Amino acid sequence: MNDDFERLMTEATRLVQSGSLTEATAAIQRALGGAPAAARAPMPRDDAEIIDVEVRVIGEPVADPRAPRRANGESFTSGHFKNECGGRDYKLFTPAREDDRLLPLVVMLHGCTQDPDDFARGTRMNALARERGFLVLYPSQSQRANAQRCWSWFKHNHQARGKGEPAILAGIVREVVEAHGVDAARVYVAGLSAGGAMAAILGDAYPDLFAAVGVHSGLPTGSARDVQSAFAAMSGGAPSAPRPPRTSATPPTIVFHGDADKTVNVVNGERILASAGLAAQGDASRGSSAMGVPYSRRVHVDGRGAERGEQWTIHGAGHAWAGGDLAGSYTDPRGPDASAEMLRFFLQHPKA
């Protein structure tokens, strides 16, 4: 990232926090207008928004994702889906299978500047899938939709069932479920940052499709309607719009967030569970990862007392996937292991 761009985006965040929205908009426009041409794909101006953190260059994938299946049946292949709302590429990891049993599916939504290969490396979710026997789907945001590959969680027309990116993502999931031997009662979605915010939207919009949701360093549905309100919400300001209507209860949800996150304020983690109608039960339990990182874990229940949420607050942690691998971007290998804990939570909550 060039110095002028980083300086202008930092200034825009400060101006939003101080309530100077006109000046903040001007700073954002200057930042976007000054970005290197190679970093911008041709697109309408209102889609050239960057709602995340600094770019970090990651090496090429270890193996060609289009390579033929291994002899043992494991594969990591590319695909494309298109419907009336648009199209997106995706990657699908399938573990070796000894029989025709239906397997769970975990959908992983990357953050800004990331892609499926980077996110797979950083979260190590494919390694877990190989050990535990489930499929992993990595939808890919296109640079035509957003120059920095951010999911459009902050746009009003991408926050509800049957609209925009939620409809495209749900279509990809349904296609994979039908074609790849997936147990429809065990389909889960998780994401980081912009991907976490979109995962929350998918849980609200498609509770019939997703059995549980994982949000890492993300925001609740309806937090923003545009770029200005997105920066306000990320800084901890109140959501700019009411939550979109839901067809039924939000699926069980697990949240991870660092309390030193300077990109998305930790209050957003609390709001995700509160907006799902869940309440904290008792005091938080405390622990530390194998590398000594302290955290608090709090169980959340619905109105009937059923455990339907977990809130993990990682003390001193920033904007990064907890327990991730440094081979991927935005990871903190010190833990706790968000991938393993999300998987545990997911498998405890199949659809009834």
UniProtKB/TrEMBL annotation:
Source organism, top-level taxon: Bacteria
NCBIfam families: esterase_phb
Keywords: Hydrolase, Signal
Source organism: Scleromatobacter humisilvae
Membrane-traversing stretches: none
Gene Ontology CC terms, in alphabetical order: extracellular region
Bias (Low complexity) ranges: 234-252
Ranges for region Disordered: 234-253
Protein name: PHB depolymerase family esterase
